[in-house]
Every structure is written in structure tokens, then in C-alpha cells.
Specification:
Layout lengths: L14 H65 L4 H28 L5 H26 L9
Helix pairs in contact: 1-2
């Protein structure tokens, strides 16, 4: 491989040697940039993994808190004079209503999804244009007096 040595003048090299030197330098630069990107992404991946573990533990703690507060609410209802089974049934009914409301809101949100309507329309328009250009070229080949689209 051709390299510029410290005592050597670059003007004395042939064009082929200069091209080889340039491509070698570009190749080394790209390789170094890729290595740097890998190191940075590795560090970011470790940070993301640690963050996701922390979010998972927080979610678990949040679930435990909801369970404990639900039991506390049920025993609070018992303290007001409601039977045990009825207090826990009321708490369960509150969660069932909450779940139904959340399902309804989620359903309405999902119903509003367009499904990339604009992208489908533009792709269809592009395909139509390409077909039309192909037909125009065929006509131009058959009849040289027909102007072709040049866009």
C-alpha cells in the first residue's frame, strides 16, 4: 500500500499512488468514525438498559402501591359500617368502571388512526404518474410527433 513517508514529497508520487493514498486515508477515517459510533452507542445502550430497569422497578412499586391503597380503601369502607365482602366488591367495581372508561377512550383513539392515508394517496399518484409516463413513451415511440413528458 502506498503511504506518504515523512521525508518523501507528495508531489513526486504518481496519480495512481495519490488515489491509492487518498482512498486508504478515507477508508481509515470511515473505519475510525464507525469505531467511535460503536463505542458511543454501547455506552448509550448501557444507560438505556439501566434506565429501563429503573422504570420497571418503579412500575412494580407503583403496582404494589395501588394494591395496598385498594386494600386500605376497602378497610376504610368497612370502618364506615359496610360488610367486608361489599367493601371489597365496591373497590373492585370502581376498578371495573375505570377499566371500562380507559378501554372506551383507547378505542376512540384507535378509531382515529388514519393508517398513513396521505402516504397511500401520494404513492398511488406516483404510480399513476409513472404508468402515464410509460404510456407516453410508448406513444412517442409509435408516433414521433407526440411530445413526451420530461419531468
Amino acid at each position: 500500500m502506498t503511504e506518504a513517508l515523512p521525508g518523501e514529497r507528495i508531489e513526486d508520487k504518481s496519480l495512481g499512488e495519490l488515489v491509492a493514498l487518498a482512498s486508504s486515508n478515507v477508508s481509515n477515517l470511515v473505519r475510525a468514525e464507525m469505531d467511535l459510533a460503536k463505542m458511543e452507542l454501547k455506552g448509550d445502550a448501557k444507560k438505556a438498559a439501566l434506565g429501563s430497569v429503573m422504570f420497571s422497578i418503579a412500575g412494580l412499586c407503583g403496582g404494589m402501591i395501588v394494591i395496598l391503597l385498594s386494600i386500605a380503601l376497602a378497610y376504610g369502607l368497612v370502618a364506615l359500617g359496610i360488610w367486608h365482602w361489599a367493601a371489597f366488591l365496591i373497590v373492585a367495581a370502581v376498578y371495573a368502571v375505570l377499566a371500562a372508561v380507559l378501554i372506551g377512550i383507547g378505542y376512540l383513539r384507535m378509531k382515529k388512526i388514519d393508517g398513513a392515508k396521505r402516504t397511500r394517496r401520494t404513492l398511488k399518484d406516483d404510480l399513476t404518474m409513472l404508468r402515464k409516463r410509460g404510456e407516453d413513451r410508448e406513444l412517442a415511440q409509435k408516433d414521433p410527433d407526440t411530445p413526451a413528458l420530461t419531468d
